[in-house]
Specification:
This protein is an alpha/beta fold. It has three domains: about 270 residues, Rossmann fold (3-Layer(aba) Sandwich); about 100 residues, Luciferase, Domain 3 (Luciferase, domain 3); about 130 residues, ANL, C-terminal domain (GMP Synthetase, Chain A, domain 3), CATH 3.30.300. It has 17 helices and 29 strands. The strands form six sheets. Strands 2-1-11-10-12-13-14-15 form an eight-stranded mixed β-sheet. It is globular, with a radius of gyration of 24 Å. The model has no long low-confidence stretch (mean pLDDT about 90).
Length: about 600
């Protein structure tokens, strides 16, 4: 009884943060609400405050603004106009942030490319964006150089090279971004006055349920509202906070929940190229980071680390992110003494999101949009219907496919590809003519006690042809299409499988071949050259024949359930690509046991 009373008053105390959020109205589409504008507003108030910490560099808000203005003037002088697209292909570092803001200042659209991409996926993302220029880091010169002949940006002056930590020379097919910079042009640009909330700010590429990466449209309105909401009711961030951000800034989690949230309130942020569990707590202490933007995989890695002195009395008090699974939640909170965990749920292309506003355990929280869960046939990969052909809504705590109603307060912008956008829409769900965004995910409601009368939800799993690995969404169809190019693969069936002690699902592929004559070394090299690290299959199963459904879709469910388990795959051979291994090798009973007991850790 006493615990219930305490929980009641704790939830009531949260209202001072939630009420302003409920009253918050998204910016009007024709208003001057944009990344550039709210960044410039913050610069006025916190000009000399430290903004970015990166390796040995420290940048104040005014220094970043000056550098962004100088670059924005260069882009404008070289013909980048309002609505033009500019590729940004660079690892997390200050020049990424400067370039991002500069593009927004001239009203351009930042085409944010996953730094892991190579080969045809990289070509596809650049060419379909119809970009005028490409700003890229020296660290990724090799990835671009390998596909130059296929990219529709052809002039060397349109490839803007940005030096990295080592003094490499600019390649002869590109132009040094420092050329023709006018360092006197540090004032804010007049062009920024024309940038409005309704303008597209970025293309953020996401692997959907089918095909190659698709560019989700991210407007300034969505950027401003998303980061504002997460500041007010997520972190409760202030200008005195410093955030630890090692997530890629080309994705919405690192960019919106991380960088943009800091800009909203004048907070500082430590940015890092890539996550390192071994150095995490040392850096947390060094930069006194009070906030952390996360994905579940990072939390799992940290929980598996040996205890270190720096984790004790660490300054992190609040964290926002997604993918912290229920089985890890309490362990993480209790070991590292984090007061506030605000798990969120959403997608770059989605028309709504969930947020754990009340700091409840093991939940993605609640949403202010119309969200419904419906019975889903995982085996047939489709929504179930009743005898009248109507979708069956979940009424208990069972998992169901989450659909979000498309409405004026839940606008669906979709992708640059209109046909792909429409494939994510389900119609006539509750009423004739209604339209709903298909999240592609199974959720369930949960009882969290006193919760202001709002339903709370928990993420269950992904459905269809997408799985998540290494913090990335992987399209099984996209991977299969690439693997099918390899001469000795007749038809690849790709799916994700669960691995003990890991987050998400590891990639696995099944196909028919002669394992005695199959060239595993060449195949391994082919995989490395054509797929980003997160999309490379960890396991290969050699099968006699691929089974299909009545509509000729490859059957995945039995394969997914049997996975790499040697006691379930009958007489089929299974091969594995162990961490840091250069080639696939036969999965033996010995390394199978090592996977199960965590000795082999992915």
């Amino acid at each position: 009884m006493l615990a219930s009373i305490k929980e009641f008053f704790r939830v009531i105390s949260e209202l001072k943060y939630i009420v302003p959020l409920l009253r918050y109205k998204w910016p009007e589409l024709d208003s001057n609400a944009s990344l550039a504008h709210f960044f410039q507003d913050t610069v006025k108030e916190y000009s000399d405050k430290d903004f970015l910490y990166f390796e040995d560099e420290v940048w104040t808000y005014s220094q970043v603004n000056d550098a962004a203005n100088i670059l924005a003037n260069k882009l404008a002088n070289e013909g980048v106009e309002h609505g033009d697209r500019v590729v940004l292909f660079m690892e997390n570092r200050p020049n990424f942030v400067i370039s991002l803001i500069a593009i927004n200042k001239v009203g351009g659209i930042g085409v944010l490319i996953n730094t892991s991409l190579t080969g045809k996926p990289l070509v596809h993302c650049i060419n379909t964006s119809d970009s005028k220029k490409c700003i890229f880091g020296d660290e990724l010169s090799g990835s671009l150089e390998g596909v130059l002949s296929e990219i529709n940006i052809t002039k060397s002056s349109d490839f803007l090279w940005v030096e990295d930590s080592k003094p490499d020379n600019c390649p002869d097919w590109a132009s040094n971004i420092k050329n023709n910079l006018d360092h006197s042009k540090t004032s804010n640009l007049n062009e920024t006055d024309q940038v409005i909330a309704g303008d597209t700010a970025f293309y953020i590429f996401t692997s959907g349920t089918t095909g190659v990466p698709k560019a989700a449209l991210f407007t300034n309105q969505k950027l401003v509202a998303g980061s504002k909401n997460i500041v007010m009711a997520g972190y409760r961030l202030t200008n005195e906070d410093c955030m630890y951000n090692c997530l890629p800034l080309y994705h919405s989690t690192g960019l919106i929940l991380g960088l943009s949230a800091c800009i909203q309130v004048g907070a500082s942020t430590f940015i890092k190229r890539k996550f390192s569990a071994s150095s995490f707590w040392v850096e947390v202490q060094k930069f006194n980071t009070t906030a952390f933007v996360y994905v579940g995989e990072l939390c799992r890695y940290l929980s598996f680390q040996e205890a270190c002195p720096e984790e004790v009395n660490n300054p992190i008090t609040k964290m926002v992110g997604n993918g912290l699974r229920p089985d890890l939640w309490d362990t993480f909170r209790n070991r590292f003494n984090v007061e506030r965990i605000c798990e969120i749920y959403g997608a770059s292309e989605a028309n709504g999101m969930f947020m754990n506003l009340l700091n409840k355990d093991q939940t993605i929280g609640m949403s202010n949009i119309d969200i419904r869960l419906f019975e889903y046939d995982v085996a047939e990969d489709k929504l179930k219907v009743d005898e009248n052909g109507k979708y069956i809504e979940i009424k208990d705590h069972s998992p169901g496919l989450a659909l979000m109603k498309i409405a004026p307060n839940a606008v669906y912008a979709g992708y640059t590809d209109a046909q792909a956008s429409e494939k994510k829409v389900v119609t006539d769900v509750i009423e004739d003519g209604d339209r709903w965004f298909n999240t592609g995910d199974l959720l369930k409601t949960m009882d969290v006690g006193f919760a202001l009368g709002r339903k709370h939800y928990q993420f269950v799993d992904r459905v269809g042809d997408t799985f998540r690995w290494k913090s990335e969404n992987v399209s099984t169809n996209e991977v299969a299409e690439i693997l099918n190019v390899f001469e000795q693969v007749n038809m690849a069936n790709v799916y994700g499988v669960q691995v003990p002690n890991t987050e998400g699902r590891a990639g696995m592929v099944a196909f028919n071949c002669d394992p005695d004559t199959f060239d595993w070394a060449t195949f391994s090299s082919f995989v490395d050259e054509n797929l980003p690290f997160y999309a490379r299959p960890v396991f290969v199963r050699i099968i006699d024949e691929l089974e299909t459904t009545g509509t000729f879709k490859l059957k995945k469910n039995e394969l997914r359930d049997e996975a790499f388990h040697l006691d379930k795959v009958n007489n089929d051979l299974v091969f594995i690509r162990e961490p840091k291994s250069e080639c696939y090798t036969r999965l033996t009973n010995d390394n199978y046991e090592k996977i199960n007991n965590g000795t082999i850790n992915f």
